[in-house]
User: Fold these one by one.
Assistant:
Number 1:
Amino acid sequence: MINIYPEASRFRTDLDWLTSRASFSFGEHYDPDNTEFGPLRVFNDDIIGAGRGFGAHPHREMEIVSVVLRGQLKHEDSTGRKAITGFGGVQRMSAGTGIIHSEVNPADEECHILQIWMTPSESGLTPSYETSSFDPEAMKGRLLPIVARGGGEGISDIHQDLTMYLSRLDAGKSLEFRQDAGRRVYLFIIEGSLSVNGSALQIGDAARITEEPELTLETAGEQAFFMLIDLP
Amino acid sequence: MAEQPKHRLLVKHVTGRVLLDTGKTGESFTIQDGNGDTRLGEGEGSWKVRITGVTTAAAAEINRLRAELNLFHFIEQPDAERPVRKWWMYGKHRHPEIVEDAGTAELQITVDARVAYSNDAV
């Protein structure tokens, strides 16, 4: 089953410093029928103005991944960790038993991020944070893992049985992905357009996919930059 | 008489939905530690928040989402130049305990962690 969530269905927040599109209920945007997809709880597509951001605020029992698509994102937290990440960088924070953090755009240009929250597979974890970086060239024509349980070279570790991939596919190309029984796939189009088993997706669209053993991801007349998450 | 600081309590779901905001809906509340003391410490322990005037619907929703609650206690100073003092209260090792009394419209939420936070001390 492939359920398409068009770009226009996302919750919209437009402030003088933040343009946010939320794929799931978030903050004051609430739809009781759209609160999660398996352990995936939040998928926000945020553009943060220069020098602005989210001040100190707490989290608990959540795995939070920030993927920087453009600009820079500065993180500070109550464990003493600080980091500035640009394109090709990933921040993973495990809130565990509780953490305070801030996220600010430290630069004089906009910062575009995807921020993704997942319920961890175990509770009571010690709060932790890490950054990883990947080679943007390495995602061309393939699914490049950037976050996965156990981590690895260029891959952030996460406390959930999932893998996040990025891919950039030229026009007229295709990829195959095998969805194991009982697994979910979340697909989000960052740029361009893509079809999945014949269902067309444009920029900002998402697909929530279950019970599709073979996924064919194809581009037609234009390239696509997309994220695929394989999750329980 | 000098204007007094305003105490405000927010109860939020983990993804930010506000379930109760005394600054907007006017419920009164008190906070005591496990010894009944209103001089509140921080860290791990026991803190009981008693809120009166809570609607049945709000109490039911807070109870339904008790495993994923964040409580915020703000002290807003009359002098706008002074920063708001903020505390986060939550279930660190166990879910918050919720007691509803529909007869008195009182809701009690007991949590095991209380943490001060500010932009200056992230």
Note: Chain B has one domain: 6-121.
Number 2:
Amino acid sequence: MIRDITIGQYYPSESVIHRLDARIKFIGTIAYVIALFLFDTFWGFLPALFWLGMIIVLSDIPLRFIAKGLKPILFLLIFLALFNLFLTPGEVIAEWWIFKITDKGLENAGFMALRLMLLVIGSSLMTYTTTPSQLTAGMESLFKPLGVFKVPVHEVAMMMSIALRFIPILLEETDKIMKAQQARGADFESGNIFKRAKALIPVLVPLFVSAFRRAGELAEAMEARCYHGGKGRTKLHPLKFAARDYISLVLIVGFVVGMGFMP
Amino acid sequence: MLPCIGQEEARIERDKALVRFENVTFEYIRRDEEGNVDSITTALDDLSLHIKKGEFVAILGSNGSGKSTFARHINALLKPTEGKVLIAGMDTGDDDKVLDIRQHAGMVFQNPDNQIIAETIEEDVAFGPENMGVPTAEMRQRVDDALKRVGLYKKRLASPNRLSGGQKQKVAIAGILAMKPECIIFDEPTAMLDPSGRRMIVETAQKLNKKDGITIILITHNMEETVGADRIIVLEKGQIVMEGTPRQVFSKGDRLKELGMELPVVTELAQRIGLSGCVLTREEFVDAYKKALR
Amino acid sequence: MSITFDRVEHLYGKGTSFEKMALKDVSFHIRDGEFVGIIGHTGSGKSTLIQHMNGLLKCTGGNIYYDGKDISDKEYDRKTLRQNVGIVFQYPEHQLFEATVGKDVAFGPNNLGIPELQAEVRTYEALKSVGIDDSLLDVSPFDLSGGQKRRVAIAGVLAMKPKVLVLDEPAAGLDPMGRRDILNMIAEIRRRENITVILVSHSMEDVAEYVDRIMVMNDGALAMDGTVREVFERKEELEEMGLSVPQITLLMQDLKDEGLVNETSIYTMDEAVRILSQRLLKR
């Protein structure tokens, strides 16, 4: 269930990828995603595939763990592939009843599926190898220039990291409240969609009450520990470029420039 | 405060009353939808007290007696409606001093989950020093030191979500220690813990008081946890109704019960069988019973 | 209603890396009208165990019978099971959601499809038995004090008229007087309604004082099951599980070690007062 979802989950390790600066990983991921969308041939994916393979090997993350991350999008993957397979016009290579498979369709289906897989694997590698706090710190630092336009960068980053911490707690809480209401005879499983939606009120009201209570208590606890916004804050793990980060940056730039020369 | 007082004397004066409440009244004002005053609850009522540096003070009182409101005044989360609260000589009403006061007087809350901010233990402990702007190298040292003192150094990289309730409270304590406070206020820190978690937290609080000389203010419903305190203060309707050493307070069992409290089990038993003196521990009970049998 | 657990097992997250045996081979029989205490440290399986009692969790092995009927049978009516076995979870006040106290308490009876008038009567009765005054019927539950909220939430379960009442730490977080009041109230309800009560507690004192029989959970297994005396006699084993015996018992042991008394199997204040004052009088 909820526990099986590995997207967005951190996989602890001390690998070189894990130790890379979050900003570098963020930039690298963006370059990679753009590359995936720029290319529309199988050959174009070769460098991306190579790039991805290299990172997976360096990151120490077992392939099984990565494959599990694809599970939630399996349905979407199949749907997209079938959609392309049957609905792309072109030279028919196989035909059965009302279904026609064209050469172009086959190509598109494979292409789309591969692109989606590469996309999901690539971006989840970012979260597998970066703790949420590094991730938010990295984004806070990258987007800092936006502060000039009065964008509350620090606040947004803080909100994100708190949200990440409280998601599992609130999920657990939802489960508890549902059980408590079920013990009072509530039924979440039968009836039409309206009935079911109505049945959720006894869950949602306590959940909101609890979320607000938690938010209040958390705010108090943060204030009690001298929190006063981002001004004058230092960090236990300040973001600092090491040699490996500069090397990666050169590699990423190389990759991007290389893409420009691709046919 | 006083003019022409030497630095040393000022320090002594300050230590004598690290926490000083002077005729503090606090009113919660409830308003209806239109913003008209609906009701006023007086949570603290003309309360005055001093707490010395290094003291271990336990605060008792039934739900709604004003204990939590009292605690929140010590680190300036709340400010008095009337009167003054001075922490290490700093007035909590002075906005420029608020951060300084919070660094001096840290606070551990009841719900372990709702006071942990970060995703790893060490980052959570660093939250306070980060806010204070402590330089990174020193911060590393403070965090490691604080984690060692509560015995969680080895787990520093783990997620707090996987810890037991007692361990989570220890993370919260380490988070305060890393701010190098003079005083820690514990607001019912054991209410949501099981017996072994309770023991863990009370022992930690006692150790910090004895070994590091940190002033401890412990709010609790559990009488056993107060036996080792230097002083017990009982609140009722925002006023101090009893005050004294545990022996003095627990010798007035009837008054305590009137206030909705009870006695530690051993003390209660000793009083019910008519042992003389106020017995607080099992050893004292055995001695007193021996004497009575003689 | 009698409850029988026969080799009940519960395996969480089967086939994943989180796989955990939360209940292992748990067997017991609780007779109609018994007052049972369950103790065990956090994570010992207490909470998983009680969720099996009204079918919120289904066992992955073994069988559960009520009055001899297997609850996993297709014919067994789940609704009746939920009605017969009321569970009051920890901090039950966190489940309150309705606009008024009366409506919140009536939530259970309404779910059971009980006619309105009858549901209203049940609401009154339930609130009366937890000591909440009629004048609070139309008040929002969120405006009540902590202790009152707890009582209203318990009334919400009582209004289902359960034959078995399971309470998980009903006194947690209350002040000493609040604790005593809630526990006395539960004992009183049990006496009056003549129902089976199962009390999960962290307090050895409370368990010793109120229940007839104690079940000790440890690491998913039922480690001990017996009378108060039988369980608290095994002090060393309890301590190994991170539990203890009542303070009074520890004190009596100290007194015995000094040769001052002969009895150690004393678990409540009243017993201790009786024994110790008798001994003083003899002198």
Note: The beta strands of chain C are 3-12, 20-30, 35-39, 61-66, 69-70, 85-88, 164-168, 196-200, 213-218, 221-227.
